Structure formats: C-alpha cells, structure tokens
User: What shape does this take?
Amino acid sequence: MSVIFFTVTNDLNYDQRMNRICQSLSDNGYSVHLIGRKKKSSIQLHQKSYLQTRLYCFFEKGKLFYIEYNIRLFFFLLFRKMDGICAIDLDTILPCLLISKLKRIPRIYDAHELFCEMKEIVLRPRIYELWKWIERKSVPAFKHAYTVNKPIADEFKKMYPVNFDVIRSIANYQPSAEQSIREKFILYQGAVNEGRCFESLIPAMKFIDCKLIICGDGNFMNKAIKLVEQYQLEHKVIFKGMIEPEELRKITQSAYIGTTFCEKESLSTYLSLANRFFDYLHAFTPQVCVNFPVYEELNKSHEIAVLVNNTSTEEIAKAINSILNDEIRWLQLHENCKIAAKEINWQQEEKKLIHFYNQIFG
Assistant: This one.
C-alpha cells in the first residue's frame, strides 16, 4: 500500500476539495496523510478514513507565518515514512521538494490556481518577486502535476516544461438536494478575499429585495464589514463566518441564488474555476456568475447561470433581480442544474484522479 502525504496551509475541517481527493485515494487502496494548520480558533478535527495532522504555529498570518509553517512542515515530514508527497499550491512546495529529494520519492504538484497571479500577490511587488522565484525554482522540478482546468494547465505549460493533467474540483452528485426547501436569500460561499468583487456586490444589495448571506472568512473580511456599515445594510447582509461542510451544504441547498464573482485584473481569477461554482450546481441552486472563459464554456453546454460581462454594482443588481423576480427563469435554471449535475460530478473526476496516481505508484 503506497503512503502519500499531502500538504496544505489551511484548516482541514473546511477543505472540501482535499477531503474529496484524500477520501477517494483512501477508498482506492492508498494510505493517505493530510497535513494542515491549527489556528487558535480551530475546532476539534473531524475523524476521517485517512490520517490528518494539524501543525500549530505561533504566527497566524503574513510572511512570518509562511516561514514558520514551512520550517515546521519540513521537520515533521523529515521523520515520516512515505512513498510519495504532494504539495498543494505554492505555499508548501519547498518542504515537499526538499523532502522528496532527501527521501528519493516521487513528488506531485497540485495547483489549484496561478498562485503568483492572485491580486494580493501581484499588487505587492516584493512579495510577488519572492513567490515567483520560489515558483521558478520549484515547479520545473515536479514531473507529476495537475490543476483544475485547461486554461491554467496551458498557462503553466507556457512558463515551465511540465505537463499538467486536469482534475476539476467538483462536488459529489447527491440527488437528495432536490428535496431541499428554498428560502429567498442570496449566497456567497468561499474565501472572503480581495478580488472577489465585494465592493460591487455589497452596495448592489441596496437594489435587491432579499438578504445576502456570506459564508467564509479571508483577508477582505474587515473591509467587507465596513462596506456593510457604510451602505447601512446591516439588516440585509449577514456574515456567517466559517461553516463546516455539512452545514454549508444545507445552506447552499436552501439558497435561492448563488454568486460567483471575481476581478478580471488578476490572471489567476480570470482563468479560475471556483469550487463554489460546482457547489451551487450540485445544490441545484441557480447562480449569477462572472463571464470568464471557463464559466462561459460550461454555461454553453449547460445553462445553469446568468453570466455578467462586468461586475459593476448596477450589472450585479440587474442580473440577480432577473432571476429573483422571474420564477419561470429560476425554475429553468434549477432544472438545468439537475441535468448537469448528473454529468459533471466528482464521481467522474475521481476516475481521472485514481488513474493519475496509479500511473505513478502502480
């Protein structure tokens, strides 16, 4: 039985993507160990069929956190036996590269995004140069790699001589979502980070006759709260914070409309394929989504969203109201989600994942 270690910098209880990957590999004969971080606010770790470890750090954000976490991760991995190691995104790649060389084992790179092209990296030149240096030194050393869509795989191919497979991060198909009782509220779920268009979405709520529920946390949270206060929308915009996956799934299934917005200025978000897009789909929840290439392609084959060409306050409000105030339109998108979910789901992507790892470990 091959032992594979996976490394992330987030709290494992909320990482649905890694839970799917690790669970699928565990179900198919691999011994999996997932490493993440433990915050002061972390709740008890949920039991899984695979091993999980959270590393505690004195620092919880900024460059000191990344330095401390990578040092702790390196020494934790150094004294463990393993047959392979997978770095999830750029922020854990250096320890994985060093460990794989020391132990002479296969190394895998799982890129969920173009890390260096995220808005919070691009706008800080010194930080950008540091992460770009790490990327240039590390990524070409990974023979085995995969990412979430073809545009990102193509972008990596332009930069480095590495072939990235495509394994999309899609929710499991669960027909039971059809039985959910709908409430008229709009949902945003995921990281509350820069570049997610809260500057437009929150003021748009002045022109929308229902509530917006935001589930998640991130580097834009304080600014988002101030925007709500600025526009006097405390009665309309509700911050739920971090929600555990099972509870979040129930909220998503009861939502009337989901939202997927991000700024075009960041190449990472322009080429992105957000987890929430598929979470709404598998909750059979119609959504308003930014009209970027990957979403446009998916919506052509299965019309499950209203796409917006720009993320201005006026455009967002108009698009949301076009579904909110048209029951026939909502039902059409809702039914399209049911059809699409049967074809686009983790049960199908899982086959690609298992094939990828079987090619490496036999």
